[in-house]
Amino acid sequence: xxxxxxxxxxxxxxxxxxxxxxxxxxxxxxxxxxxxxxxxxxxxxxxxxxxxxxxxxxxxxxxxxxxxxxxxxxxxxxxxxxxxxxxxxxxxxxxxxxxxxxxxxxxxxxxxxxxxxxxxxxxxxxxxxxxxxxxxxxxxxxxxxxxxxxxxxxxxxxxxxxxxxxxxxxxxxxxxxxxxxxxxxxxxxxxxxxxxxxxxxxxxxxxxxxxxxxxxxxxxxxxxxxxxxxxxxxxxxxxxxxxxxxxxxxxxxxxxxxxxxxxxxxxxxxxxxxxxxxxxxxxxxxxxxxxxxxxxxxxxxxxxxxxxxxxxxxxxxxxxxxxxxxxxxxxxxxxxxxxxxxxxxxxxxxxxxxxxxxxxxxxxxxxxxxxxxxxxxxxxxxxxxxxxxxxxxxxxxxxxxxxxxxxxxxxxxxxxxxxxxxxxxxxxxxxxxxxxxxxxxxxxxxxxxxxxxxxxxxxxxxxxxxxxxxxxxxxxxxxxxxxxxxxxxxxxxxxxxxxxxxxxxxxxxxxxxxxxxxxxxxxxxxxxxxxxxxxxxxxxxxxxxxxxxxxxxxxxxxxxxxxxxxxxxxxxxxxxxxxxxx
Amino acid sequence: xxxxxxxxxxxxxxxxxxxxxxxxxxxxxxxxxxxxxxxxxxxxxxxxxxxxxxxxxxxxxxxxxxxxxxxxxxxxxxxxxxxxxxxxxxxxxxxxxxxxxxxxxxxxxxxxxxxxxxxxxxxxxxxxxxxxxxxxxxxxxxxxxxxxxxxxxxxxxxxxxxxxxxxxxxxxxxxxxxxxxxxxxxxxxxxxxxxxxxxxxxxxxxxxxxxxxxxxxxxxxxxxxxxxxxxxxxxxxxxxxxxxxxxxxxxxxxxxxxxxxxxxxxxxxxxxxxxxxx
Lengths: 582, 278
Hints:
The structure holds two protein chains of two kinds.
Chain A lengths: L2 E10 L2 E11 L4 E5 L6 H9 L6 E6 L2 E2 L10 E4 L11 H11 L4 H14 L15 H13 L5 E5 L7 H18 L2 E6 L2 H7 L2 E6 L2 E6 L1 H6 L4 H6 L4 E8 L2 E4 L2 E3 L11 E7 L4 E4 L8 E13 L3 E8 L1 H4 L2 E2 L10 E6 H6 L7 E6 L3 E3 L6 E5 L2 H8 L2 H9 L4 E5 L19 E5 L4 H10 L4 E5 L8 E7 L4 H12 L5 E8 L8 H18 L4 E6 L2 H11 L3 E7 L5 H5 L9 E5 L4
Parallel strand pairs in A: 3-8, 3-9, 6-7, 7-8, 22-23, 22-24, 24-25, 26-27, 26-29, 27-28, 29-30
Antiparallel strand pairs in A: 1-2, 1-4, 4-5, 9-10, 11-12, 11-14, 11-18, 12-13, 14-21, 15-20, 16-17, 16-20, 17-19, 25-30
Helix pairs in contact in A: 2-3, 2-4, 3-4, 4-5, 14-15
Chain B lengths: L11 H28 L3 H8 L2 H34 L5 H7 L2 H4 L2 H12 L6 H4 L10 H26 L2 H9 L4 H29 L3 H7 L9 H10 L3 H33 L5
């Protein structure tokens, strides 16, 4: 491996900018770090270069631990967005800078320089000053300069940001060519997905300091694992669907999923439908694929090769469509069609069409939607407007539904809203919370978020489960939540007994939990060990610092209110993951 | 001769007229009067006044101390400007404001304050005395006073240039293998060199013309701690206007030659630095 990152973390003023990133990049690989601005990708690149120190973790270059090695001794080449050429030096002096530092002989320097200028197609420009070159030429000089000392790794920080489209294209090709010719391991940072697709062998997508997914470009596009990646890479329609024994029920149709997930039970899932996988026809019968719903064309934009449409689905199906872009009041189904498809069926605004889906991809996410639940309309409404809940829903591109249960918490009383619970149910924290939580869990709710009225986004999420049966689900939900929250994940292991005689069983569980989180969910977490009773230990740990949240897995509801009352009294948010018998 | 097309301010004729008028009335006319006054002397008198041992001593002190003060200020002005631009610390704004104090203070006040501190029984002077270092009433005191009053010029000239040195340049040099000293010598210094020269020029020019603060701390011993401006005043007090003018003319010529040299050096440096256009 050329570059190995292990749990690299960097904090800036308390909040993590790079959060537990582990990654291996192979020899000669062209790796692209893609993410929106502020996602921590540039900081990570600077950490690899040695220009930014890290608070935690390890960085290896070609098997050598360079975590504490100065930038000048790491042997990397770095290219900056603004070129960063030395303006008082000629092109020749710029390129020879690294060689001069290494006291190379003038003749050898000249030869190396000419070789590099040929490589970036700038022969004969030796005596020019940077001010006399165009932006594209300056960036070529910067690339040549970064390669002069034959670094083992080439790092490019948004190198095309300041260039116009045509030059950008040309320079992209040059860099890819140079990279292939030299076989040098390269990491490029960008926020431009087209650039990432065009250049990468593999893409790593970052958001809120976390490395969410790493895969080959076409794999990431076809089979994203997270909502963020699905909507960040190209356009995507997110549709709430139901997993049933027969397949995935999306709208009016049931499709067999591409990959048979290990479906434990019938539940709500999020389906991704790419705009180009939607088929339109005049009526249901003439569709060549599974029927989704009837729809009305809202907006049609002609963009040359493709036609972009936005459709409003009929009432029932419209409700399951999630808004895929921020700040959109009503969601629309996005469709792109080729000229060929357009000729087969012309669609005008206002026209009714039948919508079919050719391909559905399911997100392996256990957190699909939220439902606020309280005893009357007003309380439910207030709870659904809670700041942290809205932030989570917006980041996860999902919705907050409402459910009124007038007899919430009264023993023996039945549910008013039927006994199916979808997604995560949210109740208000407080003195009544434990009784209400038990009431809901016993009536079929699986995931329950107990939310204090004034809860702020957590900086640290503590994870614990009581009973091994809840382990898998708890880890999956924690991983899903943490992809959308810039917080630190900490697994709290609690071992019965005391510190003098820790049971080997507890230690093993701790290590198992960590490796399972990493392997199955790509979740990096720190681990802590406490001794004594679980509930008391968790309460103590949560009271230590403000800004913490608990994800608690449970199998057994016996003695629920008395055991957990103190945890649900409103000092912090708690997400209860219940698996096992109700 | 061709002139650039006008920019924001209209009327090249008008602005050029103003420029020449201002320069003439404020700078050139008084200087011409000085020259005229000096040239009306007899040659022998002129030589006698200008090359007297006392005058020569005062030149040496005036220009020597000024050069020394300007050099000290370039070095420490750079350090101060560096601290102010590169670091964020409590009280930074306050220190930044303090830099300008010598601008605003009447120079006589600075002189008196320095004398109080550095006299043999002053706060600092009393500890230097046993070490055999005398500051007040020696050339050291003169240099100190000149350093104080010319310090802001050096700092303020370098500060904007340092702000413009991109951190990326240093980062780039570092990834290419350069150590700190190398980065400083090959990247930072060349970039701020023009500004450093400007700072030097301004500080030097200010120091040569200084009078108020020096006379308090120098003790004014002829041949030892007497600066040329003071000698001129002494001539004036004896109603020897021509003698004063002659000394003034010498200062003028030396200053002009020195400033011209520095400016030419700077222009040469700048040409090397940004050779624009094809």
